[in-house]
Amino acid sequence: MFNLGLSELFVLGAIALIVIGPKQLPELARNIARFINEIKRSTIDFRKNFTEIDDLKSAAKEITSVMRNTENWVKDEVQNILVEEDVEKTKLKTGHQENPNHVTEDKEKSTETLLKKTEEPQHEGFAKKNKKEES
After folding, report:
1. CA 22 to CA 127: how far, in whole Å?
2. 79 lies in a domain?
3. Which residues of 22-44 are buried (b: 16+ CB within 10 A; e: fewer)?
4. Rounded to an integer, what distance in angstroms lies between the CA atom of residue 70 and that of residue 76?
């Protein structure tokens, strides 16, 4: 960082020994080492904060994406319901206006049709056998 060689360090050490004195030099060296370690910890914490911010940004993007997908799904479902209601209204206007109970009648008719179909024999041989038994 400072590109100091061995001879420059000896000169700095001699000057520090003369200016500060031999009693306070070890204490000053410890304080300088603590200060340097504190700066290192601060830079590490600072970098961690930036990575946490990046993680939060990516999580926010994911949440936004999920919210958009949900919003689109809800819009589609509402649109489908509205279309179904329009179809029902059109059915009411076109042919079933006279009878308000047409929906239940239609269900009853379809149920009756299903019952008749299930009562009918599935195979020709089975049908012939049933006709012989009835006569």
Report:
1. 120
2. no
3. eeeeeeeeeeeeeeeeeeeeeee
4. 10
Domain presence at residue 38: no
pLDDT in tens, 33-50: 999 999 999 999 888 888
Q: What is the 3-state secondary structure (H, E, C) of 27-76?
A: HHHHHHHHHHHHHHHHHHHHHHHHHHHHHHHHHHHHHHHHHHHHHHHHHH
For the chain, the domain total comes to 1
Q: Is residue 96 part of a domain?
A: no
Distance CA 104, CA 100 (A): 9
- The predicted structure's pLDDT at residue 108: 58
For residue 99, pLDDT beyond 70 = no
pLDDT tens digits, residue range 100-123? 555 455 555 555 555 555 444 444
> 25 Cβ partners below 8 Å, 6+ apart?
16, 17
117 lies in some domain: yes
Q: Find out whether 127 and 134 touch, Cβ atoms under 8 Å.
A: no
Q: Which domain holds residue 107?
A: 101-135
